[in-house]
Specification:
This is FMN-dependent oxidoreductase, nitrilotriacetate monooxygenase family. It comes from Falsiroseomonas stagni DSM 19981. This protein is α/β, with parallel strands linked by helices. It has a single domain, classed as Luciferase-like domain (TIM Barrel, Alpha-Beta Barrel), CATH 3.20.20. Strands 11-10-9-4-3-2-1-14 form an eight-stranded parallel beta sheet. Strands 5-6 form a two-stranded antiparallel ribbon. Helix 6 packs parallel to helix 7 and helix 14 packs across helix 15. The longest helix is centred in the middle third of the chain and has 19 residues.
Length: 433
């Protein structure tokens, strides 16, 4: 029986995707910079048989709202206070099966360094690393990396294709048995099983060979969140996990159907990619308890921070913009298409304007474990999802409750694993159940 996948969405700052949750009484702040914070949550997720966790990330401090970063920083936005690549080894050390993902841009990194750093972590974790590939969607991030601005979106994706081609050539430059390690014969490695990449594209090049051997899963798992037509084409070619944020089941079904059709058209098996919509859940022992918890979480939301965060997502200053046309005109080459799409879906579903919808926090999925599992099962069995990305409303409480309350309910229904089938992330993603 086909099983669903669960992936935890995390940030290294005060909150992940739902605004103001750092203010919640059970949210921990005193351990933000403690290794034990990340080690503990990795163990919680592995005890709950999550496929993986991944860190969303950015290359700067958002300052689009009102032309400064005052509200975003002062009110505790979705900041990246640490480089996630420094946390993955900590989490790998205390787990043995949980996949570990980081976000890295193909626009501002070269293929050799990407292949080397991600490949090294994949070796040290024994084949559990995922790379969330982004092309970067905001001008201030480009300026932090020494550029005047962003290249056009299609050009960014063209470069991303070449980066993935080059990284793949580098990772595949070592055969599985290239390392010999024979003291008696004095043969450390077999040179005939190590190759140059000799990759040359329009945007990037890499000579190779890579200085590190092949990892237990061959190469890191590729994760992506393409929403535009070009982004979907990229995802269909490369992604093994796709993160999406549809506002309705029908939108999720249309997205997954499109991705699978694109994969089939280029000769990829659609079952080799898990499409994972985002669900922000609030659980309670009873429905009334869950609703009370959700109401309290919503009462903590700072409306100004919601708009500041939305300004960052759509790459436009929402303090002076109140319609979609003006937003697109101001954001130009920037912004996350998936967020714009979700806002339009919300506006249509709720019968409200774009200006109203863009100022709302994400809808919460609220209920008992059985009620939340009902919705997840419906999406899963109807073909709208292969599983779910789960951001926390409160860190670490949300993940603890999912692992101890929701996962057992999904297991009882036969929808989720009761053990890991493989030692590598790719092996668990491809397990037919």
């Amino acid at each position: 029986m086909r099983k669903m996948h669960l992936v935890a969405y995390m940030k290294t700052g005060p909150s992940a995707s739902y605004p103001s949750t750092w203010r919640h009484p059970t949210a921990t702040l005193d351990d933000l910079f403690e290794p034990t914070r990340w080690e503990r949550i990795a163990q919680v997720l592995e005890a709950g048989f999550f496929d993986a966790c991944f860190f969303a990330d950015g290359l700067g401090v958002p300052d689009l709202y009102k032309g400064n970063f005052d509200d975003y920083v002062g009110r505790g936005g979705q900041l990246s206070l640490l480089d996630p690549m420094t946390l993955l080894p900590l989490m790998a050390r205390v787990t043995s099966r949980l996949g570990l993902g980081a976000t890295l841009s193909t626009t501002f990194h070269n293929p050799y360094n990407l292949a080397r750093s991600l490949g090294s972590l994949d070796i040290l974790s024994k084949g559990r690393v995922a790379w969330n590939v982004v092309t970067t969607a905001r001008e201030f991030e480009a300026q932090n990396c020494g550029e005047e601005g962003l290249p056009p979106k299609d050009q960014r994706y063209d470069r991303a294709d070449e980066i993935l081609e080059a990284c793949t050539a580098l990772w595949e430059g070592w055969d599985e048995d290239a390392l010999v390690l024979d003291k008696a014969s004095g043969v450390f490695a077999d040179p005939s099983k190590i190759r140059y990449a000799h990759y040359k594209g329009k945007h990037v090049a890499s000579r190779g060979p890579l200085s590190i051997p092949r990892s237990p899963q061959g190469r890191p798992v590729i994760m992506q969140a393409g929403s535009s037509d070009r982004g979907r084409a990229f995802a269909a070619r490369w992604a093994e996990m796709i993160f999406c944020s549809p506002a309705t089941k029908s939108a999720a079904l249309a997205y997954r159907t499109d991705i699978r059709a694109r994969m089939d058209a280029i000769g990829r098996n659609p079952d080799e990619c898990a499409v994972l919509p985002s669900f922000t859940v609030v659980l309670g022992e009873t429905e009334s308890i869950a609703k009370e918890k959700a109401a309290f979480i919503e009462s903590q939301v700072d409306p100004e921070l919601v708009i500041a965060a939305a300004s960052w997502s759509v790459a436009a200053d929402l303090s002076v913009i109140d319609d979609e046309g003006a937003l697109v005109a101001q954001s130009g080459n920037q912004g996350v298409q998936g967020h714009r799409d979700r806002v339009m879906q919300v506006a249509k579903a709720k019968g409200i304007s774009f200006a109203q919808a863009v100022r709302l926090p994400r809808d919460l999925v609220v209920g008992t474990p059985a009620q939340v599992a009902d919705m997840m099962e419906d999406w899963f069995k109807s073909g709208a999802a292969d599983g779910f990305i789960l951001p926390p409303t409160v860190f670490p409480t949300t993940f603890e409750e999912v692992a101890t309350m929701l996962v057992p309910e999904l297991q009882r229904r036969g929808l989720f694993r009761t053990r890991y089938a493989a030692a590598t992330l790719r092996g668990n993603l491809l397990d037919p159940g």
